[in-house]
Amino acid sequence: MFSHMMVGSNDLDKAKVFYDALFESQGGKPGILDPKGRLVYAHNGAVFLVTKPIDGNAATIGNGSTIGFAMATTDAANAWHAAGEKAGGTPIEDPPGWREGGGMKLYLAYLRDPDGNKLCALCRG
Question: Beta strands of 1-125 (E only): which ranges?
Answer without folding.
Answer: 5-8, 32-33, 39-43, 46-51, 67-70, 90-91, 97-101, 104-112, 118-124
